Amino acid sequence: MVAVGAAAKIAPALGWNVASAQTMPQGFHTLSQDYADFCATPPEKRVFYVVADGKIVPVRLDEKTWKPSAWGKPPSLPTPGDSWDGVPMDAPISGLAGEGPYQATWDSLSQYDAPEWYRDAKFGIWAHWSPQCVPEAGDWYARNMYTQNSREYRYQSQHYGPPSRFGYKDLCPQWTLLNWEPDALIQRYKDAGARLFLALANHHDGLDAWNSKFHPWNSANIGPHRDVIGAWAAAARKQDLRFGVTVHQARNWWWFQTAHGADDASGAAPGVPYDGNKTVTQGQGEWWQGYDPQQLYAPKHPFEALPDASFVKNFYDRTRDLIDQHDPDLLYFDNSLLPLGWGGMNIGAYFYNHNLKTRGGKMEAVVNIKEVPDRLAKSVVADYERGLTNQIMPYAWQSETCIGDWHYNRALYDKPGEYGGYLSPRDALHWMIDTVSKNGTFILNVPGKPDGTIDSKEMAVLDQIGAWIRINGEAIYATRPWTIYGEGPDTITSGSFQGNSIAKLGPKDIRFTQNKAKTNLYALILGWPTEEVVVSSLGTASGTNAPKVANVSVLGTDAKIKWRQTPQGLRVQLPPQFHSANNHAAAIKLSLA
């Protein structure tokens, strides 16, 4: 558990306010029932809690004032300890962190160091699949299909019927993966250069992609009728790729409240509740008989309702089950910090302890979270969604982006050109090179179709990435940053969701990496210039304390390279471009004296 004193020390560093202690209302922060029972409780009997006038107070659902919540930004709680995501940090029950040296406090997690395998891998592929890919219409489909007049609502109504009659739960069986060949896909990802593979374990939409012991809405029961995560894990490990899982379920409490609405007078079915309002008893005779939609969508609740303790425990139980069943190397949360207060903190500690136990005492685990303050950067591997940094980071970090939308969007494939509307191989490789030069690992999501395949334009992007890495991987894998990350006239924009600024980089921009022995330095030119390249940072009179260069070569060719190191810079004449993939970036290898 998080001690009050420890929480008080952490909170100011994070900008959190620790309110004075108060007597919590009876029932709050207690586990009197499990989540299935909470979901089965009639709506008028459910008790929720909100923060009002600086106090936690019980409330019940008021249908007249209800409106759907969104991403969820709950306040700090007026409790004796700290809180996060509207949940206290101290758990209502003990023993959740497992056996080992890690406890559910940031001070304890700071013992962590990112493992060598992760720092060497540099490049991973992510398969971001869930039933939301069934319409092939892009991101956040499950939430937005319940937002009247949205693109997704119109698509749903035209192709399946109004969401009061055919909702998200009814898309779940259509996520069939009938043509899915995990071994073949993993081989393709490995050929593209990936040393790490990540699979979506669950999204905000609530379906677990494994044979979940704590959640009946899962891929073993519905849709593919397969343990998707188990099949991915077996395929990845068979081909010596490290395996990671991504968990997005914590946002389900807020994100899916749209499913509890109804059309207004201008809709297809005015006043008829959407299917998020259905209960398990209404499933008699339906395909979903025995399954409670409330467990999929989360119960309808007041806009400011704090996550119920049973929801937090269910999140913990499901994620721990995922860890226990599939023993991933990497665990990613789509959240700022570890989600849901005591739930996420204990899972973080449990994952580290579990990994030590299954790896013979050697720490090989990676936890990814977002918006990590400097004080906590050593405790995890910070993730920058669709983002980059403008400096070499002191600890290992991760940049992730998607080839298109996170969930499959056929409109991107239908756009003209060799790569349609997808991220070009050039930009993907420049993104990777920039990330690696700054002590990061690059993850590229390749969304799949509902039958379990990827399309030909996605394959074309992967093939080009793989062709470049087969020539130049020496400058990427098992490297570390040099004194500076690079030079050049163009700059990227730092931060999450700023990754498109990578498109500004060109052949006058250079990034550096070096091998771990520091005997070879690599200058990666973000293009293939025909004129002489001048690397000013390697001039003997530069301010970088540049090493003396003994020999210069270009990866992938035996051609003799004309070069000279002067006070003003290292001057290199590249040979004629010899492979189409190398047009994206040239890797100059410098053997140091």
TrEMBL record:
Pfam families for the chain: Alpha_L_fucos (PF01120), Fucosidase_C (PF16757)
Entries under SMART domains matching the protein: Alpha_L_fucos (SM00812)
Source species, domain of life: Bacteria
Entry's family note: Belongs to the glycosyl hydrolase 29 family.
Keywords, sorted A to Z: Glycosidase, Hydrolase, Signal
Enzyme class: hydrolase
Name of the molecule in the record: alpha-L-fucosidase
Statement: the UniProt record of this protein carries the keyword NADP: no
GO cellular component: lysosome
Domain Alpha-L-fucosidase C-terminal: 508-590
Single GO MF descriptor: alpha-L-fucosidase activity
A GO biological-process term: fucose metabolic process
InterPro entries according to UniProt: FUC_metazoa-typ, Fucosidase_C, GH, Glyco_hydro_29, Glyco_hydro_29_N, Glyco_hydro_b
Domain Glycoside hydrolase family 29 N-terminal: 100-474
The species this protein was found in: Silvibacterium bohemicum
Role according to the record: Alpha-L-fucosidase is responsible for hydrolyzing the alpha-1,6-linked fucose joined to the reducing-end N-acetylglucosamine of the carbohydrate moieties of glycoproteins.
EC number(s) from the headed UniProt entry: 3.2.1.51
